[in-house]
Amino acid sequence: MQPWIRDADGGAELLIHVQPGARRSGVAGTHGDALKIAVREKATGGAANRAVCELVADLLEVPRSTVELVSGHRSRRKRLRVGGVDATSVEAAISGLVAD
After folding, report:
1. Buried residues in 30-43 as b, exposed as e (16+ CB within 10 A)
2. How far, in whole angstroms, is CA 24 from its chain's centroid?
3. pLDDT (tens digit per residue) in 53-89
4. For site-directed labelling of 68, which of 8, 11, 32, 59 has its Cα 20 to 30 A away?
5. DSSP structural state of residue 89
6. pLDDT tens digits, one per residue of 11-33
């Protein structure tokens, strides 16, 4: 199991390092023990947070409403909870996109 994913109550939690204001949005590898996600949106008014949640929902093919920002609202390091999925399925969906 990757260090950036773990099972949580009723779903999975992801440890994310966000790169706001990137040229393009997507998974950008890892950053220490976190999954690095780049988003085009700037970190103002919560735009980058919303973009990260939407991107994760799209990658996992789950409704946006199941992705919740648990911590790190004003930090690049964030913890997301995705309801209704387990860590193994999240890892399978995202690991192929991670180029260490």
Report:
1. bbeebbbbbbebeb
2. 15
3. 999 999 999 999 999 999 999 999 999 999 999 999 9
4. 32
5. H
6. 999 999 999 999 999 999 999 99
**pTM score of the predicted model:** 0.91
Q: Could you tell me the sign of the dihedral formed by the alpha carbons of 5, 70, 72, 48, in that order?
A: positive
Element (H, E) at 91: helix 87-94
Contact between 71 and 79 (Cβ < 8 Å): yes
Six-digit token string for 4 = 């950036």
Rounded to the nearest 5 percent, the helix, strand and coil shares of the chain are 30, 35, 35
Assigned token pair, 95: 């690991």
Taking the CA atoms of residue 38, residue 88, residue 67 and residue 4 in that order, the dihedral angle to the nearest 10 degrees is: -40
pLDDT of residue 69: 96
**List of residues 6+ apart from 6 with CB closer than 8 A:** 12, 13, 87
